[in-house]
Amino acid sequence: MKIVKTLLKGVLVCSLFLVASCAKKLDEFNENPNAVDPATANPNLILPTVLSAAGNSYLGLGYGKIGGTMQHMQEDGWFSGYNAYDWSEEDWSGWYGILRNNQFLLDRATELNYPLHLGIAQTMRAFIFGTITDLWGDAPYSEALRGASDITFPAYDTQEAIYKGIIEELKTAVATLGSVGDASSYYASGYDIYYNGDAAKWKKFANTLLLRYAMRLSTKLPDLAKSTLEAVYSSGDYIKATSEDAVMNYAGIDPGSAWPANTVADPSESNWRRRKACATLLDKLGDLDDPRRGVWFQPVHVRWVSDATLGTALDPYIRENGVLTDKVSITDMEYKANSGKVYTRHFNPSLFVPSLFNPAPPKTTAYVGVPPALLYPDYHNSNPTPGQSVENQHVSQLSYNFQKKDDGANGILKARLATASEAAFILAEAAQKGWSAGTAEANYNNGVKFSLESWGVGSEYAGYIDNAGVAYNGTQEQILEQKWIAGFANALEAWFDWRRTGLPVLTAPGNGSVQPVPPVRLIYGNNEINVNKTNAEAAISRMATTPYSTLRGKNSQWAKPWLIEGTGKPW
């Protein structure tokens, strides 16, 4: 019995020793060698995470479904959300995730006294919060980002309070960036993927955001808007050249570093192929003989030819250099391989019979866009191969620029967060209001010039600015029309301008649309409504219902947030 007790004691001692040893090993194993220790993290390592996520998120919507909303582009497959505003709830967790990383950057920059990184973090905080309230309306702001300390369910600040807050934050960022001095001792080159550590350009970016939000508030808070904008203009320290644009380049090394839907991100080319020019934009570009048209879009692969001698309503096959073939269609690969050949298809207008799918005779122009929110966009312009197997050869596709694998630093495919063109158009609108912002015409001309430069056709400016319809005519309509054109491929600012002004005047959506007008906000996500129910419902209750928000009530893409409530805009 004594032997048994001794053995049991020995086993117990060994067990305790093993537990202690395992605990020590587990502590060691739980230290992830690939993770960044928050206590010692270098702010340089955090910069690319914040900046790339913000750039991709901003572009993702502007090139995505808001491009369809603002009638820059349309899709002819899986198109209901893009063309017809059939939107569902949309969570903002991605944006708040960026804000959490940015807060870490801000805290570490403060601890280490890195004014460059602090100014960048302050600017990006204002940019991201501003974008969130632009998109949804009221949102957690003053109580946000405190889940690890004291507030798990943050209240929603009003949109008015958030806009006022970010204006003050941007003023603080401008002051911080103005005090940076020499940052070479702590900034590691290449980690700032916007400006590579140039504090002076970051300061211009922050001031340009002040111009943006001042104009955003010009109807609801005109005194604050006017004083803010005039102070920035008086400083002269805002983005005034395309070399100062706040942009993110795409390396195209892998899907994560590639322009959305290009051949790296989508080797099948399906997403590139189903996105087409919208007739609203394409027709305007044609009317103005705009040099950006060929940069953005292609002529149709197969052009319709009106032929009164044709014995049938439509040619069953295409013609190659005028000779009828046995081909119903050609693929994009065939078209590129035979770029010197001319492809046409004839039709007899007197024999053409309208149908649900093709209510009008074929368009014979070289560039053809898809009208907004068609019920059957893949049939448009008498396409003989509807569906997704072959692209519609009778409408204009995106140019091959949007397929490039590596657009590089000198390319044209960039996430544009704020630009000289935008700043100039803002000042043109301000000057037209009578604010102290220079002359409206000079600012307008600069807006046009900078946009052409950014898309590689700056040499066309002198001829373009004198075109009928382009030469300044003194109207807000013209300023915002050109600003809308300049916003192609990143349509968020065009959407926000249209909401507050109703300009440019968009084409009435077709019968495929959920409602007869474009929407004005994103829908609060279910995660937020379910988890932060009380605060989310309080914010929803403050939304203004409209004749178009009946299906979803106040949490609708057609309910109006504070910024446009009571303005009568955009509809």
Residue-averaged pLDDT, rounded? 92
The share of residues in helices is: 40-55%
Overall shape: globular
Strand content: 5-15%
- CATH class annotation of the domain at 43-74 and 88-250: Mainly Alpha
Category by helix and strand content: mainly alpha
Poorly predicted tracts of residues? 1-30
Strand order of the largest sheet: 6-9-7-8
* C-alpha termini separation: 93 Å
Describe the structure.
By secondary structure, the chain is mainly alpha-helical. Among the domains are: 195 residues, Alpha Horseshoe (Serine Threonine Protein Phosphatase 5, Tetratricopeptide repeat), CATH 1.25.40; 130 residues, no CATH class. The chain is 42% helix and 6% strand. The chain is built from 20 helices and 10 strands. It has a 4-stranded mixed β-sheet with strand order 6-9-7-8, with no helix packed on it. Helix 2 runs parallel beside helix 6, helix 5 packs antiparallel against helix 6 and helix 15 runs parallel beside helix 17. It is globular and about 80 Å long. The termini are far apart.
Task: Give a brief description.
This protein is mostly helical. Helices cover 42% and strands 6% of the residues. Among the domains are: 43-74 and 88-250, Serine Threonine Protein Phosphatase 5, Tetratricopeptide repeat, CATH 1.25.40; 274-403, no CATH class.
Tags for this entry?
single chain; 571 residues; mainly alpha; Serine Threonine Protein Phosphatase 5, Tetratricopeptide repeat; 4-stranded mixed sheet; two-stranded antiparallel sheet; 6% strand
